[in-house]
User: Fold LysR family transcriptional regulator from Parasedimentitalea maritima.
Amino acid sequence: MSILPNDLNWNHLRAFLTTAEAGSLSAAACQLGQTQPTLSRQVAALEAELNMLLFERIGKQLELTQAGLDLLEHLRPMGAAAAQVALTASGQSQSIAGLVRITASDVFSVHRMPDVLRLLRDEAPDLKVEIVAANDIRDLMRREADIAIRHVEPDQPDLIARKLSEIRGHFYASRHYLDQRGYPQAPADMSDHDFIGMGDPPRMIELLAPMGINLSEQNFPYGSESGLVAWELAKQGFGILPMVDSLGDCTPDMVRVLPDANPFMIPVWLVTHRELHSSRRIRLVFDTLAEFLTDN
Assistant:
């Protein structure tokens, strides 16, 4: 029977090659992430395609026939070539280098990203990372950044998004401010206080209303698009500001307002474009961020 190259199934050839090199179907199945019966069927199919016996079972062991040994000699270069193609497709080289741009809020960029950079420096010293500290949503599709840390789920279908966790937040104010203006005892008391706007005050008013905190724009005499500036204003005693507990609780002289109230939960989304599947450096940074944000 004449066998043409187009008649051969690479999955069947790979099943044979992996089994021959692993020494058993069970070990080969583990390497390929398949079940042993599936792998056995692929090897049997190859034997049928070639019309030759490739393995002999001796007791519980598989032994290559002479035909199997001859085929293995030809397939090993093919396997090496396939591995090289996969390596090239997944990263172009064995060393992880190049630039990755990460966009995150300015607060996260200052207080959390240094810890991430230390992990990346140890893992891939040739990698370059640019942090785009911005509170607006940068467009990954236009490559303004490679990876984004967001608090809302993106709606672009071509992006890969993974919700990693939810972080806790409360309201905070400086001890000096609360000593001067009083300590709110209930949500309704908050309407007598100054708040620091961060972004869009009307949106903040809308979000706080279901919590029983009824504010107007008069409650926002100061504000900033920058989370860092807003936090500094709160530290300087200009009003109340919502902030994540991990920062608020460790800042000297900052006090939780309504400490017994339920925390508000802030979702954390890690987002990238589909190049994640083909860039080893983006994959490394994405996975490092995912592990860090899940554990911290």
Summary: Residues 66-91 form the longest helix (26 residues). The first strand starts at residue 55 and ends at 58.
